[in-house]
Amino acid sequence: MADKKNSNKKCRKKRVLVIERYPIIREALTCLINKQQDLIICGMPAPDTINMQCIKEHSPDILLAGLSVREIASLKQIKDINAKIPPLPILIFSMLEGPIYAARAFDAGAKGYIMKHELVENILKAVRAVLEGKVYVSEAIAAQLLGSLAAGRQIHGKHKKEVLTNQELSVFTMIGYGMTTRIIAEKLCLSVKTIETYRARIKEKLGLKNAVELVYTAVQWVVEGSH
Length: 227
What we know:
By secondary structure, the protein is an alpha/beta fold. It has helices at about 1-10, 25-35, 50-60, 75-85, 100-105, 120-130, 140-150, 165-175, 180-190, 190-205, 210-225; strands at about 15-20, 40-45, 60-65, 90-95, 110-115, 135. Helix 2 links the parallel strand 1 and strand 2.
């Protein structure tokens, strides 16, 4: 009887809770993960509804959280979840390259960081590695992190980017992608006045004189790959 219980426990599929904004990616992940013998999707709540109650309802073994420029600020949610439920491993599934974003994710408590354009095999490898208690980083990101260390730079960024808060970094990156203040406000569900305040803070922290310097620096940041 004991052997049967141990066998059932061993064969139980690991439950994956996915937080992803884009429907097409959610569908692809569902198809990919549910085809595995050892993994199963246990839920895909809306990105804005992730909280402790949501996690309790789905009882996941791992949280796979999507990260795009508008979600940088939501890393605080990841940090809060990690503080309250330390055993829950978190893997960030990101559109953002560059060591600064990976470093912010690990600071928030993530155990893995993989790019969304990775091969299917690598995504599954990352999920299983994090489930086993290992730390996983995409090869490209790992190389950039090591490059930053070898060059004697702080992992969190260069040119003072590390002093920006997650929300400010999100706004700064959006500026680099050519988004106007109004568009940024709409995407982050904030007022135009709030975004203008963030712009002012960013200029002050980075020592930029005016809006032209801000835009130029932000564009260079994005063009250089944010590293």
